[in-house]
Amino acid sequence: MKSSGLYITLKHLWINEQRCIGIQFYPNKLIQALVKELPSPKWSVRYQMVFILNTPSNVNAIFDKFRGVAWVNCSHFFPKSTLFYENKPLSWDWFYNRELKKGYRACPNEYIQKLEIKRYALNTAKIYIMCFERFINHYKTYELMQIDEDMIHAYLQQLVKKQKSRSYLNQTINAIKFYYEVVKEMPNRFYKIDRPRKADKLPTVLAKDEINQMLACSGNLKNRCIIGLLYSAGLRRSELLQLKLQDIDSKRMLIRVEGSKGEKDRYTLLSEKLLIDLRRYYKFWKPKTYLFEGPDGRKYGVTSVGKIVKRAAERAKISKNVTPHMLRHSFATHLLESGTDLRYIQALLGHSSTRTTEIYTRVAVNKITKIENPLDSII
């Protein structure tokens, strides 16, 4: 939005012994007209900006009025907001520049070097480092090579008692094994560490009508494109945010997905109907590099995508707790129900094995719904 000039900046002002919201913007007829519709707007000669009283209802009024029209820059208004933090590219600076508490045991440099050399994804590396540091600080008085399998089992048992998730336990095991088996090159030392039993849960899938309702309730064109891409291309949220303008191949009707999970590239489908929306979106928002950008021209925020999907589902009155990944599940299931070969679905999703893709055969209902219920044949 910033690239099109449509954005406003909120400021804290103290006028006539009252807390006020200052609204800064470049001259624009559309913004000026919307500002006039806010509750009792006034002009401050001292601050050279429009202001309204600072109340919860007025804050909501600003967001409601400019939603889908102009970006609301809150960096001066909500100093603790994570709005801009989530758009920053992750780098190793977070590790080298952080401040540690006295006595805190930091991850060994050789651990960091090995992660960098093996080109681990930065998000994965960050999880490994944090999990391993919690582990080595639990056994702070021991040298790392003095820690044995029994001590590791005892630590994992404590995590279980604290009701940590299976995913967290697996991440912790991976982080510990990475040090002893990869960094120290002892591949069999901790072979006996048991992993938590994987829950055999089915993916939650939305009906096509529910997807359609979400698109109708998306709020604006940008949100509609985000929801439409997650579903029609079966994208992970991280893959959506990584898309660049040149990744949309309208001649071949394909989308190129680069550096997805496991550092794999692939092609997936481009919807003809969505392409119309994407072209309209591009003309209005004019992104420069990434298909979806924040106000600073960087990748759109991870949290923002989740909120867009959740808000659209709520407006569509869908009772399920809808997530971006649920749209990916729905894409695969609907393809399978329409008769698409499982191997093609595997390629579109970027799965390494059909075993991963086969889970959708358990939620596809096109065959099940044709089975006559025995009660119906009795009555």
Automatic annotation (TrEMBL):
Residue span, Tyr recombinase domain: 201-373
Family membership: Belongs to the 'phage' integrase family.
SUPFAM superfamilies listed in its UniProt record: DNA breaking-rejoining enzymes (SSF56349)
GO molecular function term, any single one: DNA binding
GO biological process, any: DNA recombination
Gene3D superfamilies xref list: 1.10.150.130, Intergrase catalytic core (1.10.443.10)
PROSITE patterns: TYR_RECOMBINASE
Swiss-Prot/TrEMBL keywords: DNA integration, DNA recombination, DNA-binding
Protein name: Site-specific recombinase XerD
